[in-house]
Design brief:
By secondary structure, this protein is mainly alpha-helical. It contains twelve helices and three strands.
Length: about 325
């Protein structure tokens, strides 16, 4: 039934959240009933090829999802799920330049209120223009019609496997181990044992708490290496691992908040650069210090959200506290 599960997940991708689970349950029951009837007639289990043929006869997941959506006048039900997905991507891409310009305005010490009005006006203009272009393109495709033969040229076996949300990607564990080993190497080599750094490239003076911050980070890094190594061998979230991950992240957040709240960068100069550009890093450090509490609160909210999400998606078999 793995192929059926992959098909259902592909259909769910194109459905709005409020009807996604209900439609998936209805469709799954319908497909399994059809498979059971075919098995009864044949007197044996269906092969993967035969199951794939049944799914292919039902149509592409996007088209199946469109049958459960209300009728649209401008964009037909066959294209509407794809149309919505493209609009979301366009909206995200359109907001990236605005975010970059906003950060640049803050760095240049411009009036944030005036800059915000200009940037929001520009963002809305860009967004509506992009939406209009996408809508026109899809409307043209709708009027020209779609080639039914091309819609049949697909293979259910090429559908993506159903994602196990309780699985920990091994690439994440390997990345955590490598990153912390680099931190340990820098600490062992003495690069993190002082807060004043001078070289032909320039001069940097950090907060006096930089050294104890590095020591705390190394201690947390050792714990994280142990957790990540365990995750490599059994890459699945359990309650114990979820809470261990949350405690590590909270430790990092606490140490980082402590560092930035003490004005992390005290003095900086870069060879070949005048004072204002080189001093922008110090200004950014002051801004971080002023908003340290807000940053810490935001990070704690993100950590709590991750914890809740991971617990919610735990499979019952992994609800045990043991790792």
């Amino acid at each position: 039934m793995n192929l059926v599960e992959r098909y259902i997940e592909a259909v769910k991708f194109w459905l709005p959240k409020d009807i996604r689970d209900d439609v998936a349950a209805e469709l799954a029951d319908d497909i399994r009933s059809e498979i059971e009837e075919a098995e009864r007639v044949k007197g044996r289990k269906l092969t993967d090829d035969e199951v794939a043929a049944i799914l292919k006869a039902r149509g592409r997941p996007m088209l199946v999802a469109s049958r459960y959506l209300p009728r649209r006048w401008l964009i037909g039900p066959e294209l509407f799920p794809l149309y919505v997905l493209v609009l979301k991507i366009v909206a995200l891409v359109s907001l990236i330049p605005v975010a970059v310009l906003f950060v640049s305005a803050v760095g240049a010490h411009q009036n944030i209120g005036d800059a915000s009005l200009d940037l929001w006006g520009q963002s809305w203009n860009n967004l509506w223009s992009a939406f209009a272009v996408v809508t026109v393109i899809f409307a043209v495709i709708e009027r020209q019609g779609m080639n039914p033969a091309s819609l049949d040229k697909w293979n259910p076996k090429t559908l993506r496997p159903v994602a196990d949300r309780s699985r920990i990607p091994r690439s994440t564990s390997i990345g955590d181990i490598i990153g912390n080993l680099i931190l340990l190497a820098l600490f062992a080599a003495g690069y993190l044992s002082h807060n004043v750094y001078t070289s032909p490239l320039g001069h940097l003076t950090l907060s006096p708490v930089w050294v104890p911050f590095c020591q705390i980070s190394v201690a947390i890094g050792i714990v994280e290496i142990a957790l990540s190594a365990s995750n490599l061998f059994t890459p699945y979230w359990t309650l114990a691992r979820i809470f261990a991950r949350a405690l590590i992240d909270l430790g990092k957040t606490g140490a980082f908040t402590w560092l930035i709240s003490t004005n992390m960068v005290r003095e900086v100069s870069v060879a070949g650069l005048p004072v204002p550009p080189a001093g922008s890093l110090s200004s950014a450090s002051v801004i971080l210090m002023q908003h340290a509490s807000a940053i810490a609160g935001l990070l704690v909210i993100v950590i709590a959200a991750h914890l809740i999400w991971r617990v919610f998606h735990l499979k019952p078999a992994r609800m045990a506290v043991a790792t």
